[in-house]
Write a structure and sequence with these properties.
There is one protein chain. The longest helix is centred in the first third of the chain and has 17 residues, at 90-106. Strands 3-2-1-4-13-14-15-16 form an eight-stranded mixed beta sheet, covered by helices on one side. Helices cover 33% and strands 23% of the residues. The protein has helices at residues 74-85, 90-106, 132-144, 177-184, 207-220, 232-242, 246-252, 270-278, 287-292, 300-306, 322-337, 345-352, 354-359, 425-434; strands at residues 2-11, 14-24, 27-32, 41-49, 51-56, 109-116, 147-154, 193-199, 224-228, 260-264, 282-285, 310-312, 376-379, 404-409, 412-416, 419-420. Bound molecules: zinc ion (ZN). Zinc ion binds at residues 55, 57, 115, 227, 263, 315.
Amino acid sequence: MNRYWAEHALLNGAAAQGVLIEVDDGRITAVTPGASDRDAVRLPGLTLPGLANAHSHAFHRALRGRTHDGSGTFWTWRDRMYALADRLDPDSYYALARATYAEMALAGVTCVGEFHYLHHSPTGSPYPLPNAMGSALIQAAAAAGIRITLLDACYLTSSVDGKPLAGPQRRFGDGNASRWTARAATIEPAPHAKIGAAIHSVRAVPADQLATVADWAAERGAPLHFHLSEQRGENDACLEFYGRTPTEVLADAGALGPASTAVHATHLTDLDRTELGDTETAVCLCPTTERDLADGIGPARALADAGSPLCLGSDSHAVIDLFEEARTVELDERLRTERRGHFDAAELLRAASSAGHKALGWDDAGVIAPGARADLVTVRLDSVRTAGVEAGPAVVFSAGAADVSHVVVDGRVIVRDGVHRSIDVAAELARSIGALW
Ligand SMILES: [Zn+2]
């Protein structure tokens, strides 16, 4: 049994003062506002529920500062990303992911959704252990102290019209969806790790293969994620080949629903939005990546109004800061509409916490309440960024990852006073990334 005393804590979207949080066996057992307890671990500042990073490609962290000043488009950026993908093996990927997930822990992320498609060796032949790369990611999350949902991605073709994988893409592919299911079924979950499914996109999985992946996820009650309409080019190619939008093609295959999450959903028709909302398909926005790649601004408010729960991901890890992702959802809407006030602060923090956890299959996380997983993220209110701000949800507009002082995951302290308890994060990032270039 552990006891934490939070100077302020976010309970049901509002800040309460002097909150005693009791924890036993990784779960919150009692939450008492207005309490005092001199023996409890003191958490000065504002304590939030654990943040969920619902869309990650861990290896993209090695691109930070190396591609972000470039010109060109998403497609030219992708060529550089592929060159990096070609160099990773299970050992180097473990080292890079461990450091990247530790950076996430420092930022208050208690659970990551890893959208994983680097399955095989660079020639496309499987490793002796066919899930060596996925296992490296699961072990990396354990070492960093956070939970993971490994969203194992089916990736079969290089274009909507079915061109085969070539060059660096060969290692992504399993040949067809049934071979993907055979491999994915052998990935071992763990107490900190769930296994979910992913359809890379309609570019990478032909329409006649989609239902196999969707059914596999549905039979297991596992989350299903897919990239959707991030680029207009994807929509154009899909319309030309199928005469349907990517959303319609996925809907036809039974891939939409409350356990499904569409990532990006930037360029949608009105009907696409209705279809996603009516089926309660979640949408994971990745605003810092979308702006870096010049993708465009997704229709966040319209999606939420249509019925799609919104969550957030740092995707390419140009930035790992869920506060920045969350406030950008509102700020981008302001730029587009020339009007303020589309999302309130509590709604933005819900996207970063409970909605993200739910999209990753952890329905019992992301709130500070009895019975929930004991994930606590304390934000300093005495830094140069946060000094003088009110202790409340609006902190999302001023705080950043650097203001996270204390992180508890499943009742275990992972970050104390802004320092990871077992990993020298900057040194490990430098070492693991330096080895790749
Ligand atoms: Zn992605």
